[in-house]
Specification:
This protein has one domain. It is about 35% helix and about 10% strand. The chain contains three helices and two strands. The structure holds zinc ion (2 copies). The site of one zinc ion (ZN) has 7 residues, from strand 1 and helix 3.
Length: about 80
């Protein structure tokens, strides 16, 4: 299964909903990993910090991000592909 297909599976949808809940529906981005947490709550996307655990992600493998910070994450790390 390719990655785009994986993102449409019930497993991923459930994982995504769990992440939304544990992150309390708020962007988790912090400047330098320390600054105050971003306050955005709209259009949140679940980002993979890495792709080593696809299909068995835990919450630490994922980061809930607003669209701006999701773009920034991928801008800073071009190695990543999508989501
Ligand atoms: Zn944000
Ligand atoms: Zn991403």
């Amino acid at each position: 299964m390719n990655y785009q297909a994986y993102l449409r599976t019930p497993h991923w949808r459930a994982t995504r909903l769990r992440k939304l809940a544990t992150a309390k529906h708020q962007c988790e981005f912090r400047r330098d990993g320390r600054g105050p947490r971003c306050q955005a709550r709209l259009g949140l996307q679940v980002h993979h910090r890495h792709y080593r655990s696809i299909g068995r992600e835990n919450d630490l493998d994922l980061e809930l991000l607003c669209p701006d910070h999701h773009r920034e994450r991928h801008g800073l790390n071009q190695v990543e592909l999508a989501s």
